[in-house]
Amino acid sequence: MNDELKMKWHSIYGQILFDRKLMSAWKQVEANKGCGGVDMETIETFKAEEDKKILQLLQELRNKEYKSTPVKRVYIPKKNGDKRPLGIPVIKDRIVQQSVVNVLSPKFEDGIFHKCSCGYRPDRGIERVMQIILWYVEYGYNHIYDCDIKGFFDNIPHKKLMKVLTKYIADGTVLDMIWAWLKSGYMEEGKFMESTSGTMQGGVISPLLANAYLNELDWELEKEGIKFVRYCDDFLLFAKTDEEIRKAGEIAKKVIENLGLEIAMNKTKFVDFKKDDFEFVGFSFKHWRERKKGNGCYYLVEPMEKSLKDFKKKIKDVTGKTLTLSQEVWMSRVNPIIRGKTNFYLYPFKAIEKNKLFGLKNHCYLKGICNKLRAIDAYIRQRLRVCMIHKHPKVRKGYLMTNKWNIEYFCKAKLIPSEWLYYSTSVGFTMEEYIDTCAKRGKMKLERKIEKMKSDGREYYTKERLENIAKCQAMAST
Length: 478
Description:
Layout: H1 19-32, H2 43-48, H3 50-62, E1 71-77, E2 83-88, H4 91-109, H5 126-138, E3 143-148, H6 152-155, H7 158-165, H8 172-182, E4 186-188, E5 191-193, H9 206-223, E6 227-231, E7 234-239, H10 242-258, E8 269-272, E9 278-280, E10 283-290, E11 297-303, H11 305-317, H12 327-345, H13 347-357, E12 364-365, H14 367-387, H15 395-400, H16 407-412, H17 418-427, H18 431-455, H19 463-477
Parallel strand pairs: 1-4, 11-12
Antiparallel strand pairs: 1-2, 3-7, 3-8, 4-5, 6-7, 9-10, 10-11
């Protein structure tokens, strides 16, 4: 609900005035890591005297002497080449913000936030987003409005945000603290800059404030009977007809404008999923299509190309051929990346399985994900082959080692193939089954290639190919 609470939340400030509460918040801040703020205090220096500094902070809060500090402005590159501004609060501010979040978050989760809001919330995330999207698509809501809010975090009007918060919070001290954090400003190149709008990305409390503000949009859509899913400032609307989705889009636009925000028209579009594709939360949703045998329809979900490029880049960054490391170290560098990315690509499968528990029939085809992962695995192995040649490593030498350092070799060397990990999690594929399947697949691929070249009147085992095979055998024997 986005109506004002009859029984607002009191005494929030008093709930953070305990050393154990501040220490718990500090441990969360420490776990999140990150750099220090403008006061040069780092995670490491704070940890060295954590007990003393927590008690000092507690005393400041009890005496109401605590004051927020301007954040440090830093920029991180975006995937489109632009830079995203972040604000890094000092450690002390992060601890207090985390303490307030720890008190407020369960209250917002208890019936305030909408069930279709999935970003920055406990037990909700991309898997939940996938569940909702697949559910609506399967039930025929194939007209989609794909919307993004322009510069959301930078443009939230402070006064309107506070007006929303006062629907729920009656504790004036906490409201004053939130206002002070919003107005604390930032330091950039040694100069102080005022904050006139927005909630700085990088602040601990920013995601909670963002969700509280867009909760207004969520419940307005609910009142109009519009199906939707939202992940932070990106959201999708669903309808069964073109007329309905365009009407829903107009309603959403009006609500967003009333919130003092603007739709990013260059990132917003209407989609007819019967013929158009769309992308959301790192996945590409490929439109409905007829099966070749004419026995029904299906659609595809695959990782976005930029997600796969990011996968490769992360592997490339940790497999520099100028380093001389043992096999065990190389595997330890790439395996965490493989696990993290593959677990992300498992979200569609997990969402489908959860939807099946509620009786939803599935027409989503996921084999394309495995094909992408197979190509990534080949890339990883080739990077490692070059790295593992300590004397004058070159790409060509890496290819010559393909037969010696093959799939089975790397599996025994404890490399985690992303394709195997995907199948292992989804269908219980053992490593032995994976190695056997890869061997059979490679043999069949070679036989088909030889047969095709033969039918074209070409010879497969040419003199040059035989020479390369001999080189490979020579390299393998060294």
